[in-house]
Design goal:
The chain is an alpha+beta fold. It has helices at residues 48-55, 120-128, 150-160, 219-228, 242-254; strands at residues 44-45, 62-69, 76-83, 96-104, 109-117, 146-147, 166-173, 180-187, 195-203, 208-216. The chain has a five-stranded mixed beta sheet with strand order 1-5-4-3-2. The protein has a five-stranded mixed beta sheet with strand order 6-10-9-8-7.
Length: 286
């Protein structure tokens, strides 16, 4: 395993702004940078699971990519961060942490949920499903690698807005060459080649990355492809052509990257404190 902190196809550097309401220090882990504050002063965990979940994160290990605190009362916080501690663990484990904190303001208690993902888009999806307004976490800062093409933008939006469509079966993050991550999923919306692989590949020289979706008849075939890479990634049925991707990219650019999902997040309606903390697992391809 590399001793150099890395995050798959992404490359971080110094920046003053990560999203419209997020800040990121120098990568990796400048001790002079501001640490993530979960805003839990004067709050107690609502249950043992939330206490354990909060204690499992060391703020100094987290590089914030995007965050959002609900207004006006701040009952909920949503965070996406690179968890640097993962790079010292089992090779291939997902390194993007999605975190939600729900505060009961009448009891001064909180519940804490988290989940690790291989890619930013799946972490965004996890938070959107828990009430985060998508436009608040759809953008990250200048230090983050940029999508190389419109098809990447379109594929990421598809994941972000997919709700519970994709069941994540496995993932892998590479800290070496090839600089990539992949997420193996089952698409519940189709019976035709329902196993989908989302492959993200980075270009460090260009500071960009691509995201592509592959379709397979079964999990074994998909795993064999991931292991051998002896043929191009098979496109899913009705895969958008480049012209359609360009049109979608133009539309996304005009909307300043804001998700097309309706505003049904916690800023628009009240959502009670969530269930006890849980973390989505992922195992390395053997």
């Amino acid at each position: 395993m590399s001793n150099e902190p890395a995050f798959g196809p992404y490359d971080f550097g110094p920046t003053d702004s990560v999203s419209v309401d997020a800040t990121q220090g120098f990568w990796p882990g400048d001790p002079t940078a501001d640490e993530l504050d979960f805003r839990l002063d004067d709050f107690e965990p609502a249950d043992a699971a939330s206490e354990r979940a909060e204690e499992s994160f060391w703020p100094g290990d987290l590089t914030v990519l995007a965050k959002h605190h609900t207004t006006p009362n701040g009952s909920h916080s949503f965070v996406i961060a690179h968890d640097r501690s993962i790079t010292w663990g089992v090779p291939g484990e997902p390194q993007v942490a999605a975190i939600m904190v729900a505060r009961d303001l009448s009891l001064n208690t909180f519940t804490f949920e988290s989940s690790h993902h291989a890619t930013l888009a799946f972490a965004q999806n996890w938070l959107v499903e828990r009430g985060c307004p998508p436009e608040r976490i759809a953008q990250v800062g200048e230090a983050f690698m940029k999508p190389a093409d419109d098809l990447t933008v379109l594929t990421e939006q598809q994941i972000r807005e997919s709700r519970t469509r994709y069941e994540v079966l496995d993932s892998h993050t590479s800290d070496f060459d090839p600089c990539e991550t992949w997420t193996l999923t089952r698409d519940s919306s189709t019976d035709q080649a329902p196993i989908r692989v989302f492959l993200e590949e980075g270009d460090a020289d260009a500071h960009t990355y691509t995201m592509r979706e592959g379709a397979f008849a079964d999990e074994t075939t998909a795993r064999n492809w991931l292991e051998e890479r002896s043929s191009p990634l098979p496109q899913p049925p009705k895969y958008p052509d480049e012209a359609a991707a360009r049109r979608a990219g133009v539309a996304l650019t005009r909307s300043a990257g804001v998700s097309a999902l309706p505003k049904t997040g916690l800023d628009a309606r009240h959502v009670p404190p969530t269930e006890t903390a849980r973390q989505q697992g992922s195992r390395r391809l053997m």
